[in-house]
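Changelog note: in this version the structure field was regenerated for every chain. One regenerated record is shown below for reference.
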Amino acid sequence: MQDYQEINVLKETRKNASMAVSAIDALMGKIYNQEFAYELAAQRDRFQNFARKAEAGLWEHGLMARQSTLGKAMLWGSIQANTMLNISTPHVADMMIQGNTRGITELLKVKHNNKNTGSYANELAEELMDFEEENIERLKRFL
């Protein structure tokens, strides 16, 4: 039972971090504020690191992480629609704040539904949520 719950938390952690990387990748070509672009590039690197750590944890359970092509396409389409008429730095910062907030919410849900996880999955999810909270605070200055 613990393995199943740990896998659920690792999968959500990986999904969360991977979606953030995909979102930042989709936005980078639209950002004209150098300081904001630098901030998002630094966040992307950290999210990529979280995704790798979660993948390593899944690998230890004998699972290979799969990327949802449909989810990635839906994210890309949503970003394109949201930035079609407004690519201002405050608007994009708001989009990123909303994404970080959703990420925290989804991780909290999966953690509450899978309380018997090992320390690795739990600590990684906590670390990612802390990072997303820090991101929200850093992104507020671009609103």
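Spot check on this record: Helices lie at 2-28, 34-60, 69-82, 89-113, 119-139. The first helix runs from residue 2 to 28.
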